[in-house]
Amino acid sequence: MKKKYTYWQANEWWLGYLEEYPDCWTQGESEEELKENLLDLYTALTSGAIPNVRRVAELEVS
Q1: Deepest in the core among 1, 20, 27, 62, taking most CB within 10 A?
Q2: What is the pLDDT of residues 14-34, one digit of tens each?
Q3: Domain architecture of the chain: domains with CATH
Q4: Confidence (pLDDT) at 62
Q5: At CB < 8 A and 24+ separation, what contacts does 54-61 make?
Q6: Is residue 28 a contact partner of residue 34, using CB atoms and an 8 Å limit?
């Protein structure tokens, strides 16, 4: 399974979020650490450990 994420570098830090969960950002000192933190964040968000998580989804309309 693959998940899309948005990321950028701000000074020494790499910042990013999973596109499905745009309210929940994480960071890393390198791009690789950011990816690891995004994986940890995904696990926490989908486990139910974090309450009231808002998500982005698609709705098909005619």
Answers
A1: 20
A2: 999 999 999 999 999 999 999
A3: 1-62 (3.30.160)
A4: 87
A5: 54/21, 54/23, 55/20, 55/21, 56/19, 56/20, 56/21, 56/22, 57/20
A6: yes
